[in-house]
Amino acid sequence: MSILELSHVSKHFGDKEVLQDVTFSVPEKCVFGFIGRNGAGKTTTMKSILGLIKTDGGEITICGDKVTYGHNLTNKYIGYLPDVPEFYSYMTPREYLRLCGDVTSMKSSDIKARSDELLKLVGLANENHRIKGFSRGMKQRLGIAQALINRPKLLICDEPTSALDPVGRKEILDILSAAKEQTSVLFSTHILSDVEKICNYIALLEHGNIAVSGTIDDIKSMRSEPAIELSLQNPDYASKIVKAFPSAEKQEGKLIFKNVSANQAEQILSFVAAQHIPIIRFERHEPNLEDMFMEVIGK
Amino acid sequence: MNGFFAFLKKEFFELSRSGKLLIFGFIFVLFGIMNPAVAKLTPWILEQSADSFSQGIVIGEVTVTAMDSWGQFVKNIPMAMIVMMIMFSSTFTGEYSKGTLIPIVTKGLSRNSIVISKTSVMIITWSIGFGLCFGITYGYTAYYWDNSVVNNLAFMAFCWWIMGIFLICVLTLFSAFATSSPQVMAGVGGVYAVMYIMGMFGKIKEYLPTFILNSSSLITEQSKPDDYFNAIMITIALSVLSLLASLPITHKRQL
Questions:
Q1: Chain A contact for B111, CB < 8 A?
Q2: Which residues of A touch B9 (CB under 8 A)?
Q3: What torsion, rounded to 10 degrees, do the Cα atoms B147, B152, B158, B164 define?
Q4: Strands (DSSP E) along chain A, which ranges?
Q5: Testing the interface with B: which of A76, A81, A88, A141 to mutate, by most B Cβ within 10 A?
Q6: How many CB atoms neighbour CB A3 within 10 A?
Q7: pLDDT tens, A184-206?
Q8: Nearest chain B CA: its distance from A231 CA (Å)
Q9: Least Cα separation, residue A265 to chain B (angstroms)
Q10: Does B97 reach chain A within 8 Å, measured CB to CB?
Q11: Other CB atoms closer than 10 Å to residue A276's CB: what's the count?
């Protein structure tokens, strides 16, 4: 069963059509990467799911319940981490989690146990200072803890890693991976390496539409074949190879062969061996999300 | 309901941690003490100022009574109200501009709970502060003079208290769509100004909330409680309407 379903969702701001026809669904217990360029409409989509923005058309359901703008009933299923989370700066992390627990009608003993567990998970267990002095990374981590406090069925994170340094990013990704055991995670990003690390489903938003969506393996296999990179010891041989294989592209002492089948790769290697061309490296590049991303957005 | 009380608790916590509670306490207690103190010191102040004139002004015997102490109360309470309005003007807009409500609303807390709990906190704070100021003035006045010469004291206090509630409800209404605290203050000030101007024309003034402020004349028996019945009813109705109108506007507000 799907936790979240979006069906033909559209939204415009003035003349700008931000979402045209967005349709996708998020299955249970998965990490769903929601990819798109800056300004593609990722935040608008997420805020629509949360009932914070009024959509113009289409339907959004969470655990079978329809989302209605202005009323937040479906939000009981959701934990949300905004892109720049802001908390009450005069509270300590524990006090803030207590407020979140109280708001969602959790039992006092449960709030205490859950706060301990989550603060440990996000590495803030020994942080008893007020939120006022927290760094951005610490706020993101507290943001994940508050989002998970009431054991939501769906955790929505809006670009949780975008503004963080490599260490902070890795920490957040590890936490999100761990959270997968408890809930489905929908996180938006434009950092494709993050998606490859932790997601098992993705959807790519481009020009207000879902350009591709599916499991990460399906998406990768959509790109037909891997590419071959050949580095030559003597660049003078490059033209000889290009003559035999016209599809090869010269790039700074290297030759790139795109969409190469196993058979073609063998032919290239045999040609190089037969012609006694000295090489430094013969490398096979698996198609990655970045190639797919560039292909879809037409760059 | 749990969410409402959780948010109510948070609001009081915020008042206390931000230091606002201390400032409110200080102001209401200060005014409470100042009212009888200024009345008590009036003869001495007049004597001092008379001496400073080189020509010399003859000031006759000045008799201070409980009436003067309560006269000071009526002068000072609007000041306390203005300070309170300024302090509360950012209670909603501050949260909207910082985005601190987003994590709470996305947890399923209804916006009605937020509006009603914030308004409740303002009303409770005003009521306690007003009660404190009134109680201190009453105590000192009873100590120095005799409160029994003052007429309709409780009713006069009720009129000012109701006026405070009305202003809080108007503040809640403007907070529903304003984007900054100066806008909220301008809205509340604007409503007051419009009523003040309307009050200059004919009989309508007896039906306006601003008419309640004339209730200071109750203590000298220049007016009687019945005169204020219409204005009080209208003020209560407008307060309830302001609060009710703020709910759907807050629902549609983009966070």
A1: yes
A2: 99, 102
A3: -80
A4: 2-13, 16-27, 31-36, 57-62, 65-66, 78-81, 154-158, 184-189, 201-206, 209-215, 227-232, 249-251, 254-257, 279-285
A5: A88
A6: 23
A7: 999 898 888 888 888 989 998 88
A8: 52
A9: 53
A10: no
A11: 7
Within chain B, which residues score under 50 in pLDDT? none
Q: Per residue, what are the HEC states of B30-44?
A: HHHHHHHHHHHHHHH
What's the average model confidence in pLDDT over A237-259?
Answer: 84
Q: How far apart, in whole angstroms, are the C-alpha atoms of residue B159 and residue B196? A: 17
Residue B164 corresponds to which tokens in the numbers above?
A: 């405070």
A180: closest CA of chain B, how far (Å): 19
State residue A115's pLDDT score: 94
pTM for the model stands at: 0.82
* A104 chain-B contacts, CB cut-off 8 A: 3, 107-108
Nearest-angstrom CA–CA distance, A40 and A184: 23
End-to-end CA distance of chain A: 36
Q: Searching chain A, which residue's CA lies closest to the CA of residue B251?
A: A70
**Nearest residue of A to residue B19, measured between CA atoms:** A90
- Answer yes or no: is the ipTM higher than 0.90: no
Cβ neighbours around B200 below 10 Å, total: 8
Q: Are A241 and A272 within 8 A, CB to CB?
A: yes
B57 at A interface, C-beta within 8 A: no
**Nearest neighbour of A146 by CB, restricted to B14, B103, B111:** B103
3-state secondary structure of A25: strand
* A148 CA: distance to closest CA in chain B (Å): 10
- Ramachandran angles phi, psi of A270, nearest 5°: -65, -40
User: Which residues of chain B neighbour A18 with C-beta distances below 8 Å?
Assistant: none
User: How far is Cα B90 from Cα B97, in angstroms, rounded to an integer?
Assistant: 10
User: Is there a contact between A143 and B98 if contact means CB atoms under 8 Å apart?
Assistant: no
Euclidean distance between CA atoms A280 and A267, whole angstroms: 18
For residue A198, count other CB atoms closer than 10 A to its CB: 18
The CA-based angle B69-B158-B91, given to 5 degrees, is 100
Sign of CA dihedral B8, B118, B74, B23: positive
